[in-house]
Design brief:
CATH topology: L-fuculose-1-phosphate Aldolase
Number of helices: 7
Helix content: 25-40%
CATH class: Alpha Beta
CATH superfamily: Class II aldolase/adducin N-terminal domain
Shape: globular
Distance between the termini: 32 Å
Structural class: alpha+beta
Number of strands: 8
Order of helices and strands: HEEEEHEHHEHEEHH
Radius of gyration: 17 Å
Strand order of the largest sheet: 4-3-2-1-5-8-7-6
Strand content: 15-25%
Number of domains: 1
CATH architecture: 3-Layer(aba) Sandwich
Largest sheet: 8 strands, mixed
């Protein structure tokens, strides 16, 4: 195992602990993956709490989902199909995170996208967060529901399920999950105090124009 793979395995485990400690996942929920090479992906295993991942537990699969390397007793989640769809459709994306952060998942269950442009940082970093149509977990329905947003977004709510984020590396994918949940939480709080309001359209346009400056 080379140094790149060792470091990537450790980083995935760190992200799993962050997701768990932030209550973005419970029990064995969620999954994390990172592209290791053009043809290889490291993915979290099924049936294991992401808060207690160890590097040797991660499984290596190809872009078709076939197991290339796995320690005895470990196999990828069937939900890795979501991750592989992104890697196959978007070669520039190298990390995917699926979680059930409570505020964002509440909006996903309600069936409501996070599309209000209320805060400059959110507008610059993410823009609106759409809702991908419901699909049965572990089937191709969820990967298929992502198609309208690939190449345009890096975060979606999964209707009645949770959230999925991706990025140029696995840390970027994780940061997008944090941003998504923060947006959902702020939306909830501002509604509770009857203070939800969007920025004026001309201000939104100014912020969108800044995305390239910030490398978004």
């Amino acid at each position: 195992m080379n140094q790149k793979e060792q470091e990537l395995r450790l980083l995935i485990c760190d992200i799993g602990r962050n997701l768990f400690n932030k209550d973005f996942i419970a029990a064995n929920d969620g999954n994390i993956s990172a592209r290791l090479s053009e043809t290889e992906v490291l993915a979290s295993p099924t049936g294991i709490s992401k808060g207690y991942l160890q590097p040797h537990m991660l499984v290596k699969v190809n872009l078709q989902g076939e197991i290339l390397e796995a320690a005895e007793g470990y196999r990828p989640s069937t939900e890795v199909k979501m991750h592989l769809r992104i890697y196959n459709e978007l070669p520039e994306m190298n990390g995917v995170v699926h979680a059930h952060p409570p505020y964002a998942t509440a909006f996903a269950i309600k069936g409501e996208p996070l599309d209000k442009m209320m805060m400059p940082e959110s507008v610059i970093a993410m823009g609106d967060i759409p809702l991908a149509a419901y699909g049965t977990p572990s089937t191709e329905e969820i990967p298929d529901s992502l198609i309208p947003f690939l190449g345009r977004k890096t975060a979606v709510l999964l209707e009645s399920h949770g959230a999925l984020t991706w990025g140029k590396d696995v840390m970027s994918a994780y940061m997008n999950m944090e941003r998504l949940e923060y947006t959902a939480k702020l939306t909830f709080i501002t509604r509770m105090i009857k203070g939800e309001r969007e920025l004026p359209q001309n201000r939104i346009d100014e912020l969108v124009a800044l995305r390239s400056f910030y490398g978004m």
